[in-house]
Amino acid sequence: MIPQFLIAAPSSASGKTTIARGLMALYTHKGLHVQPCKCGPDYIDTKYHAMVCGRPSVNLDSFMASKSHIQEIYARYADHADLTITEGMMGLYDGYDRDLGSSAEIARILHLPVILVVNARSSAYSIAPLIQGFVNFRKDVEIAGVIFNQVGSQRHFNMLKQACDDIDVRCFGYLPKQSEWEVSSRYLGLDFNTDSKSQQLIEQLDKTVDWRGLLELKHPLAAPSPVTSQRDGGHILVARNADSFSFIYQEHIDILRTLGTVDFFDPEENFSLPDDTSLLYLPGGYPEQHTEALMKAETTRKSIREYAQRGGKVLAECGGMMYLCKEILTDEGCWEMCGVLPYSITARKSDRKLSLGYRQMEWNHQNLRGHEFHYTQFCNEVPASMTQVYNAAGTPVTTPVFREGNVIASYTHLYWGETDPLKLFL
């Protein structure tokens, strides 16, 4: 048995990211091996989790993955950890359809106790019915206790603590009002060892949060399933760097390693694909913010273009798809990309339009699911798609999927944790 809990909140902007990442850092600094997890499809928070904890963070998403898969990967990643901390998303019960896909559903699937982070700014005893409502709303979701955020003073905390005592809910402490922590919460974790604000947060949590009490929240872990190797001797290349190609689900890397040898390269630096490359994976990121560096790495672009023209297998998503296109237009100019796909992408501020949400599609007799998040757009008309893409409700969307030769590309970040990615090319 190891300590396990999920950090959630009544709504977004309550401070759960600050407290979740701060606790990860606090326990890590105390010498514990912390396994971080993230509810939902977010691939940015997991990157920062990994920086804090020194081990990969795993996404737990009940739209993109089955219940059994979530249980299997959670057990596998938590194996050999001293504790696991799962960061929720949005409000505890906010999902794609009522509470489906919510943090609460992940808590039910994994039997995780929930620590509710409550923003107490401008609140006092009236916080009691709010908390009691969450405690009583679903009996299959255990609210193990509360951590208050934005507490104004010790007297303020005493009032909040009294509210918890009167409704018999355990209070695990608080974080005082400190605007710097909230403003920088999205970026906490970039360097928890040297950043002074992060150090102040860790020290504050050590003083005002009952971190020892949180370690009492234990339950048994299921035995992890062994990872079955399917190596065929292939050489798989994955584009990865700090920003332009950084949106990668850890489970994807682990699956690719069962299929062959995985190596990484940075498309912002000149590089030639080896002759034995069997699959090129171009994940998402922010290539539109690094167009000059990507264009200057002409050897890399030429090598990828020639590899694709020879029939090499390429799987590209969102930023990776943009990189394969003819050009990316920004407010600073027009930047030549790989030219594998004959399309132009605009990243100009005047053309920004948010495309966001879960996606699903049928491809080669497989039901594929994923997530889409981007502001860039195709110039002129949206190109024709090889398959119809739908949102979580089953409504058609205009997101195209391309299959040109052995190149498969889309704005959608597919999750293929339960799919052999090589079957996409059949």
How is the topology of this model organized?
Layout: E1 2-8, H1 16-29, E2 34-39, H2 45-53, E3 58-60, H3 67-78, E4 83-87, H4 103-110, E5 114-119, H5 127-137, E6 143-151, H6 154-166, E7 171-176, H7 179-183, H8 196-208, H9 211-214, E8 218-219, E9 234-239, H10 250-259, E10 260-265, E11 277-282, H11 291-296, H12 298-309, E12 314-317, H13 319-324, E13 325-330, E14 333-336, E15 341-346, E16 355-363, E17 366-374, E18 377-378, E19 389-390, E20 396-397, E21 401-404, E22 407-410, E23 413-415
Parallel strand pairs: 1-4, 1-5, 2-3, 2-4, 5-6, 6-7, 9-10, 9-11, 11-12, 12-22, 13-15
Antiparallel strand pairs: 1-8, 13-14, 15-18, 16-17, 16-19, 17-23, 19-20, 21-22
